[in-house]
Amino acid sequence: MITLRRATADDVDFLVGLVNDDDTRRFLGGRVSDTREAALADLARPPEEFGWFVIEVDGERAGCVAFERLNERNRIASAGRFAVHPSFRKRGIGVEAARAFQRLLLGELGFHRIELQIYGFNERAIAHAERAGYVREGVKRRAYLKDGEWVDAVLFSLLDDELPE
Q1: Which of 63, 64, 71, 106 sits at a 20 to 30 Å CA gap from 5?
Q2: Are 164 and 99 in contact (CB under 8 A)?
Q3: Any alpha helices (H) in the chain, and if so which ranges?
């Protein structure tokens, strides 16, 4: 059973370890909190503006995902930091966790739109976003400097009336 819960200070070591994992870090954006201090600062942010969630499988920490409010008036959230711990990969939990996150943001938290950007070289994450029901909107060409090279970002969104049942 997959559940999401807001991260707490007790989760910081897990979160920092996960986002710094060699197979994870290169796919995450530059603003990810990759130190204890930065993660604790994120967790102290107002919950309506930012949320970092732990993905649990049968009560065991299995990954994380986060949102940041982009636009209060138009109820737009940016999603990111989606990562599954290496010991839980290839078990099919990613799409179920992503859909739970969508229900949380669009249903419970009242957002109208979720946006996400995925590095163009991250084919696995692009395929995952499509399987999870996100709609591809376009490409920001050479938008981000990653490891000394300009890379594209593929843009996705999901609207509240598109939420899968």
Answers
A1: 71
A2: yes
A3: 12-19, 22-25, 36-43, 93-102, 123-131
CA–CA separation, 12 and 43 (whole Å):
9
CATH of residue 63? 3.40.630.30
What type of residue sits at position 60?
Answer: E
Tens of pLDDT, residue by residue over 103-162, are 999 999 999 999 999 999 999 999 999 999 999 999 999 999 998 999 999 999 999 999
If we measure between CA atoms, which residue out of 12, 18, 108, 112 comes closest to residue 70? 112
Q: Which one, of 165, 52, 86, 29, lies nearest residue 94 by Cα? A: 86
Alpha carbons 35 and 39: distance in angstroms, whole number:
6
The pLDDT value given to residue 130: 96
Contact 147, 139 (CB under 8 A): no
User: What whole-number distance in Å separates Cα of residue 108 and Cα of residue 92?
Assistant: 24
Residue with tokens 């395929």: 127
Expressed as residue numbers, the domain containing 117 is 2-162
Q: Structurally, how many domains does the chain consist of? A: 1
